[in-house]
Amino acid sequence: RVLVPTGSGGLTAPFGLALSGNRLLVTSGSNRVFEYDATSGAFVRTLVAAGSGGLSQPKGIVVKPGGGVLVASYATNKVLEYDGATGAFIGQFNHGGTSTVLTLDGPWCIRVGPDGEVYVSRNLVPELHINRTRVYSFDVDTGIYLHNYVNGHSTGLWGPTGFDWMPV
User: Fold this and answer.
1) How much is the pLDDT for 30?
2) Do the beta carbons of residue 108 and residue 161 sit within 8 Å?
3) Which of 74, 105, 108, 127 would be a feasible disulfide site paired with 57, CB 3.0-4.6 Å?
């Protein structure tokens, strides 16, 4: 069964999916985030306008507790935050680090962990970067860097494009 028909609402190259109640949020290759009815697949609206806040090549998406929407903006190396009700740009979510340490080059997957913090993976070629961390943890409220969750040095994890949490 096809839930969302091809091109519905202008959707191209869909990537990230997030459920929030009866809403299905989808990142699009057109640098937008679309909202669909999660039951019928009907197009509801463009939640995040093209390029809002610098959004470019959106990958992962997650809805924070409280309703804010975080989107991994791959081409700008940032996680951007939007108002979950209006889609208005709030600001860059991730904070901390420098241009060579704690770089968030190529943010791809984003999840809220079982501890309530935000986890973001990087998809990149490790030999080209000083920091080989693959998954970072950020404070869900402030976006401040907390710690490296998965380091790449001897894990065998190269360029993760997705991850999730298993029930305990």
Assistant:
1) 95
2) yes
3) 74
For the chain, give the secondary structure using H, E and C: CCCCCCCHHHCCCCCCEEEECCEEEEEECCCEEEEEECCCCCEEEEEECCCHHHCCCEEEEEECCCCCEEEEEHHHCEEEEECCCCCCEEEECCECCCCCCCCCCCEEEEEECCCCCEEEEECCCHHHCCCCEEEEEECCCCCEEEEEEEECCCCCCCCCCCCCCCCC
Q: What is the pLDDT of residues 59-87, one digit of tens each?
A: 999 999 999 999 999 999 899 999 999 99
What is the greatest pairwise CA distance in the chain? 46
Task: Give residue-wise pLDDT tens across range 31-63.
Answer: 999 999 999 999 999 999 999 999 999 999 999
CB neighbourhood size of 74 (10 A): 21
Question: 58-63 and 69-73 as β-strands: parallel, antiparallel, unpaired?
Answer: antiparallel
The span from the CA of 146 to the CA of 63, in Å, is 19
CA–CA separation, 68 and 76 (whole Å): 20
Cα dihedral: 140, 144, 149, 150 (round 10): 120
